[in-house]
Backbone:
């Protein structure tokens, strides 16, 4: 009988008769919804944010790189969003795409995962699969989801299925989309993995099964810790190179010509986004439970976290050379999204730079073509709108800090009409009298 129910569940996904529930309709959940909708599944989106639900049900997008017409098309072909968690019972798959931030002690904040699991728990039924996609520490699926899913008497691996499949979205990257990014999946049991593969292989070109949910959780951490450590290395080398009068961007470009054994990572004003600044701390926190001190990972985290202060120091030095103090100076920060050509503000180092400038008495403003008004954020508050860049507006500031190198910026205009440019992204390779590399 168990084999029959397992096969019936698999067949429901293969025939695309299943209802897909996406819990959390942000940068991860929304593209996933669009993909499942596009291939013929009925998709129900669940989110606690009433404004997101209303926007989506009106056929509009609230994420810049996701066009409104795609959301409208999904609505017209059956997609619906709701704040009512009771409707989780309608879904054959519940894919959890909720935030996993850090708390003020730089420890994992699992409240979104736990609260979401608790919200769907009363509405779980036999034949469903629950998949967690949120980045987290190894053991989360077993320790937090498994006992909650089983509370109502459902046996995981027999009547209900549980997997971990880490998201790999890269907002705004034109070279990859949800379909083309390989999907790692770990199941709590072999049956769970079978159902997980049946769920995801409909929507994703390549499935990468691993032996357990813990292995899948660790895979996601390794991917992003690899980047964090290498960015920390190149940020430290930037500081050394600067003292020696060497352009680190020239050095990275030259090293990148080696066809083997080197991957180019570029320095910047600090780490941003939903994964790379956070994931190392998830592993270091969990490793302490096993008596392991992750010195290498923690050191890179310290270096990357210090980069906004480094940029601030370069700004203060530049103003001093002009006979000005930072206190009372008007400073324009260029780009407040965490990376170029997107509107994603999560963990953006630009915002920390703005706070540091303000704390020192500077008068801060920003310009970002992707963020017209400074958004409401959990930890940061600025009542500002994006400044339009003109020769006159640039000349009115004592300094500009290039924090995020959007393609929409007119870099010649910026350099020509700014008194002082603090360049943290290496956009100005040729020496300029008014440009300081940071």
Residues:
């Amino acid at each position: 009988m168990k084999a029959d129910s397992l096969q019936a569940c698999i067949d429901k996904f293969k025939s695309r008769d299943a209802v897909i529930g996406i819990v959390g309709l942000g940068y991860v959940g929304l593209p996933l919804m669009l993909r499942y909708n596009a291939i013929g599944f009925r998709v129900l989106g669940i989110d606690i944010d009433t404004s997101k639900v209303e926007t989506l049900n009106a056929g509009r997008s609230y994420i810049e790189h996701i066009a409104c017409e795609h959301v409208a098309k999904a609505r017209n072909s059956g997609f619906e969003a709701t704040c009512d968690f009771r409707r989780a019972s309608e879904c054959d798959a519940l894919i959890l795409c909720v935030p996993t931030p850090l708390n003020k002690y730089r420890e994992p904040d699992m409240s979104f995962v736990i609260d979401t699991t608790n919200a769907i728990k009363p509405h779980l039924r036999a034949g469903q699969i629950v998949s967690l996609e949120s980045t987290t520490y190894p053991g989360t699926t077993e320790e937090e989801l498994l006992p909650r899913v089983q509370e109502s008497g459902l046996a995981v691996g027999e009547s209900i299925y549980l997997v971990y499949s880490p998201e790999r979205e890269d907002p705004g990257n034109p070279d990859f989309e949800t379909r083309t990014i390989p999907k790692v999946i770990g199941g709590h049991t072999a049956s769970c993995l079978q159902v997980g593969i049946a769920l995801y292989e409909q929507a994703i070109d390549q499935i990468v099964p691993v032996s357990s949910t813990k292995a899948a959780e660790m895979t996601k951490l390794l991917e992003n810790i690899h980047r964090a450590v290498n960015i920390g290395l190149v940020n430290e080398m930037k500081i050394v190179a600067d003292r020696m009068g060497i352009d680190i961007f020239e050095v990275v470009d030259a090293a990148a010509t080696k066809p083997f054994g080197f991957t180019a990572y570029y320095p910047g004003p600090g780490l941003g986004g939903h994964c790379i600044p956070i994931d190392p701390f998830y592993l270091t926190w969990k490793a302490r439970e096993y008596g392991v001190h992750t010195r290498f990972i923690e050191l890179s985290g310290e270096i990357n976290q210090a980069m906004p202060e480094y940029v601030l120091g370069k700004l203060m030095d530049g103003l001093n050379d002009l006979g000005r103090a930072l206190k009372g100076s008007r400073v324009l920060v260029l780009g407040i999204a965490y990376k170029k050509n997107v509107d994603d503000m999560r963990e953006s180092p630009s915002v920390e730079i703005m706070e540091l400038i303000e704390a020192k008495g500077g008068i801060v403003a920003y310009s970002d073509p992707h963020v017209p008004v400074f958004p409401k954020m959990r930890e940061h508050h600025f009542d500002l709108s994006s400044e339009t860049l003109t020769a006159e507006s640039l000349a009115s500031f004592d300094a500009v800090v290039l924090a995020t190198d959007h393609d929409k910026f007119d870099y010649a205009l910026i350099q020509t009409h700014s008194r002082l440019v603090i360049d943290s992204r290496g956009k100005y390779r040729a020496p300029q009298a008014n440009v300081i590399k940071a």
